[in-house]
Design brief:
Helix content is about 30%, strand content about 20%. It is an alpha+beta fold and about 200 residues long. β8 and β9 form a beta hairpin.
Length: about 200
């Protein structure tokens, strides 16, 4: 699975947990990020080197994206095998956009997954709002209402065409649910702050 997204790892191994009090780093949390814990489960990655012996590296030397992907793959494969629903908040954190798209395509591929496993995710990555990998009815937006409560609404309510570029239209405000950016407010605040720091 790692090789399929161009992560050049030849093998993985998991050592016995290190329960010493000093070891609190290097463990992967369920979200796929390094976590601190009194029990350390070292994961090592085997890397080949041209003309040299292969070398095992601790997880601490791997990128945040590799950690994240490894943390996602186990529950993703379990959901696929058991026809389950997998719910992920901030799905593509530390993932390359093409890797995130690939994972969505996997779970949407009936030849790989069948038709029962499902993925429910949140993301700020507008490149995932693409009708080549998702249906129009599968894209929903979250917006703060007047009472500061979150309101969930489908993109489908705006009547997008079948070939519409949803991500680009979203950033232009076509579907709503975009933050109201106020550069004038920030500039005024910074000018006021600068004046108060000037010597009299």
């Amino acid at each position: 699975m790692l090789r399929s997204v161009d992560i050049r790892v030849d093998d993985l191994r998991v050592a016995e947990p290190d329960t010493s009090a000093e070891s609190g780093t290097g463990r992967l949390s369920p979200a796929g990020n390094p976590a601190r814990s009194p029990v350390r489960t070292p994961i090592q990655f085997l890397h080949s080197r041209a003309g040299k012996s292969s070398v095992w590296l601790d997880a601490a030397f791997e990128s945040a994206g590799t950690h994240r992907l490894l943390g996602l793959l186990v529950p993703l494969l379990r959901a696929i095998q058991n026809d389950e629903l997998m719910v992920i908040d901030e799905f593509d954190t530390s993932l390359h956009p093409l890797v995130a798209r690939f994972l969505i395509q996997i779970i949407n591929d009936p030849e790989i997954v069948g038709r029962r496993a499902q993925l429910l995710l949140t993301s700020h990555n507008t490149t995932l709002m693409d009708l080549q990998i998702l249906r129009r009815d599968e894209i929903w937006l979250v917006e703060l209402g007047a009472d500061h409560a979150s309101v969930l609404s489908p993109v489908l309510r705006a009547g997008p065409r079948k070939n519409e570029m949803i991500g680009k239209g979203y950033l232009r405000g076509r579907y709503g649910a975009v933050p109201r950016i106020r550069p004038d407010l920030l500039a005024a605040t910074m000018r006021t702050s600068a004046k108060t720091k000037q010597p009299k």
